[in-house]
Amino acid sequence: VQLVESGGGLVQPGGSLRLSCAASGFTFSNSDVSWYRQAPGKEREWVASITSTDRSRYYSSSVKGRFTISRDNNQSTVFLQMNKLKPADTALYSCKWKGNWGQGTQVTVSL
After folding, report:
1. 45: DSSP letter
2. Which pLDDT does position 17 carry in this prediction?
3. What integer is the mean pLDDT of 27-32?
4. Is 59 in contact with 69 (CB distance < 8 Å)?
5. Do the beta carbons of residue 1 and residue 24 sit within 8 Å?
């Protein structure tokens, strides 16, 4: 199993980023996938989840209305579109399938 995140970077407050999580080694189209984040000195926090068929999407209250999770089963990839970013969104963002984690991609929101 491999999960590889990309798309992080430095962005100004109010800006946008699109993260990707490319999956391999399991039947992606049958799998629910989630995004988490961890800021320095804080516990890891759940951000969003998407079901295998994209029937349902779930968001934490801190990102609902600003972030959108989506997936492309043909590419075995899950995306996280992040808009109206705030300094409080600064964290290492990782995707998760069952007990498997990617290495994460860093998002920094700062002037």
Report:
1. E
2. 98
3. 91
4. yes
5. yes
